[in-house]
Amino acid sequence: MNSSGIHVSGSLRKRLAVTLIGGVTILTVLLFFVIRNYATQIAQQSQDSILRASVTSILDAATIRNGDVVLDIPYAAFSMLSTTTDDRIFYAIYQDDTVISGYENLDIPEASARAESRFRTITFMQVPVRQVTASRVLVGADLQTHVTATIAQTQDSLSGTLNRISRNAAIFGAGFFSLAVLLSAWVTSTTIGPLTRLADSVARRGPQDLSPVSKPVPSEMVPLVSSLNLLMARLDRSFKQSEDFIAEAAHRVRTPIATVRSHAEMTLQRVDKEENRQALRSMIRAIDETSRAAGQLLDHAMITFRANQLEFHDVDLVQIAQEIVLRLTPITEMKDVELRLDVDPSVKVSGDPILIQNVVRNLIDNALKYSPSESVIEIEVRGTPTPRLEVRDQGPGFLYDEIDTLTDRFTRGRNATGVIGSGLGLTIARDVAAAHGGKLTIGNNLAGGACVTFIF
Amino acid sequence: MRYFYILICCLWLSVTSAEEWEEQKLFKGSSATQTLRLLSSTDTSVFAPVIEKFLLENPTLNIHYFVTSSATVYQRFRTSPDQFDVVISSAMDLQLKLVNDGFANQVEDLLHPDWAQWRQSLFGFTLEPASIVVNKAAFATLPKPQSRQQMIEILRTNPADFQGKIGTYDVRQSGLGYLFATQDARASESYWRLMEIMGSLDTRLYCCSGDMIEDLASGSIIIAYNVLGSYAMARADLADKIEVLHPSEFPNTMMRTALIAQETRLPQQAELFLRYLTSSRWSEPGQTETPLPSLRTASENTRRSIISLEPGLMIFLDRLKRRLFIREWESAVIQ
Ligand SMILES: Nc1ncnc2c1ncn2[C@@H]1O[C@H](COP(=O)(O)OP(=O)(O)OP(=O)(O)O)[C@@H](O)[C@H]1O
Ligand SMILES: [Mg+2]
Hints:
The structure holds 2 protein chains of 2 kinds. In chain A, about 50% of the residues lie in helices and about 20% in strands.
C-alpha cells in the first residue's frame, strides 16, 4: 500500500484489537481485585462471627459471687476457635479497667460502645491479629461492674484461604482473559471483513468496469461506498466524453482539411502564373503537414486513452501485417517499392488490435517515407522466442547520434527535412509497446537501412 | 499474665530455687562437638534409652538432659527461653500455651498426623493413658475396679480398707495431674463424686508418679488414681506387686509433646532430634528399651481417648478458671 504512495496512519485492525484487548485486560484485573476483595470480606466476616460467639460465651459465664467476679470460661470458647492452621489465640478479661485474667498487655479499644462487639486488626506479640471485644454490666447485691472480654486470633488460616481464593481467581481471570482475547480477534476480523471484501472486489474489476458497487455493505460504510460510486460514475462519464471527443474531433478535423486540399488542388490546375502556382504548392504542402499532424495527434491521444484501460483480445500479428500490406499496395506500386512479408504461419499475442494495427502502419509508413524508390521493405513476423514484428528497409537508416531521442514527442530526425511528418509515429509505437509490456528497438541493418522491431 | 506467673511462682516456690534440678545428666556422643540442651519432665531412667539410641545415630552431639516437674518445666522455660534447645513435657496444656505465646520454632516440612501436632511446632510422640494402679496383694480379696463408677462403689462398700490408703496427684503441684483432673471433670460428673469419696477417705496427695508407685509397691497405699501406666510398667522390679487397670468409660490418653525453643542456638540439631522423636524409631526393640509407648501403638480406640491438641486446652490455665477448679477440687478432696 505504501508503495503506491498512499500515506498510512495506523491500522484499523490493530486499533480495534488493541482497544478490545486493553479493555479486557483492565476488566480482568478489576475482576480479580473485586473477587479478592469480596473474598477477603467474607473470610473476615466468618472469622469475626466465630470470635464474637467466643467472646459472648465467655461473657455469658461471668457472674458475681460473694462480691467477686467469677468467670467459669466454657471449654468451647477456645475450642470453637480451632482452625486448620492452628491459629494462636490471645485473650484478656477486664473488670472495669483492670485485667483480671489472660494476657495483661492485650489492650482493648476505647470504651465508646461497651455493649457492642468491637472488631479491629492490630499487632500483638509482633504478629497481626484480629481482635474482638465485648462488655457486659454485672449487677450484684452491693456491686455494679463492667466486665469486658477481648479475644485476638492470628490470621494464618484466613490468609491461607485468601491465597487459595486469589489463586483460583487468577486462574479464572486468565481463562476469562484468553477467551476474551479470542473473542476480540474474532470481532476484529468480522468487523474488518466487509472493508477487505470491498477493497478486493474493487481491485478485481476489469478496466472497463465502472459500475456502482451493488453488494450490500454495513451502514457505517455507506458514505464511503456512495462516494466511491459517485466517483466512478464521474470517471465513467469523463472517459466516455474523451472517447467521444477524440472520435468526433478526428471526423470534424479531417473532412474540412481534405475539402480545403481538394480546392487547392483544383485551383492549382487552373492557375498558370508560375509564382501563383508556387504559392499554391506550398499551401498544399502546409495543408498536408497540418492534416498529418492532426491525424497523428488524435491517434496519439486515442492511444494514450486506450492504453490506460487496455482491453486484451487474442490478436494474430500475421493477419494484421498482411491486411496492412494489402491496403498499402496502391501506394507501394506508385512508388515502385516492394513490401516483402516473411512470416510464421500464425503468431498469436494478446492485446488491443486497433493499437497494434496503428503501430504496424506507422512503422511501414516510416520505411516508405525514408527509403528510396525501387527498393524492398521486409516485414518479418516471428512467434519465437517471443512474438515480434520487424520492419527493415534499404534506405539510409537512422543517424546514430539521434536514435535515443527519436521516440520523444514531436522529435524528427535531420534526415526528415522535406518529408511530411509530425514526429509522433515512433512515440506512438513506443507507448503501445510499453502498454503491452513489450518494447520497441530501433537500429540499422548491417547492410544499411533502418530496422525497427516491436517485441511483445 | 503477671498474675499467672505469680500464682505459679507461689505454688512451686519450694522446688524452683535457681539451679535445683530433680535430675540432670550429660549424655556424651562418641565424637561430640556440640551439646543439645533438653528440658524435660520425663524421668532420666525412662528417657535414657531414647537419648542413647539418638546419640548412636548422631555421635557428633552431646545431650544435656535436665529433669523437673512439668509445671516447673513450663515456668523455667518461660523465664529463660534461651537456655534450652528442646522442651519435652507431659503437660500438654502448658506446652500448647508455650507455642501459643511464641516460644517455639515451626518445623514446616515435618509430616506428622494432624491430631498429634499443633502449629507444626508442638509434636506429640507418645501415647500414655491415665490409669488406676492397685497393689496386687491388697486386692487379692477385693474386686478390681474397671471403671470410675466401679471404683466409687468399691470405695463406698469397703471404706475401712481404703481409709488413708488411696493416692492421687496433687493437682495444685503436678501439671500432668491438673491436666488429667480437668479432662476428667470435663468428661463426666462422676469425677467429682469420686473425688468426694476419695476426700472422705483421707486420700494422700503426690507431686509425682515415682513416689506414688513406690508407696503402692510397699503397700502404704493400695490404690492410685490417674497415674501414668507407663511409669508403673517401667518398674519391672515391681511388676509382681502392682497391677495397672484402665478405666473403661472415659479413658484419657496423654501425649508427651516436644517443641524446639524459638531461641535455640542449634536449630538444625534440635530439628534432627525432633524428627527422631516423631519417627518413633526410638521405640524399636534394641539393647535397652524404653517403657514409653510410641504413637505406633495407637489403635482406633485409644485415638478417640487422646486429649486433643487444641486451643481449648488453654482454658484451664486461665487464672479465674484455675482458681475456681482448684477451689472446687480442694473442697472435695481435702475437706
Ligand atoms: N525507416 C527510417 N529510416 C530512416 N529514418 C527514419 C526511419 N523512420 C524514422 N526515421 C527518423 O525518425 C524520425 C522520427 O520518426 P517518426 O515516425 O516518429 O516521425 P515522422 O515520421 O517524422 O513523423 P510522423 O509522425 O508523421 O510519422 C523521423 O523524422 C526520421 O528522421
Ligand atoms: Mg513516421
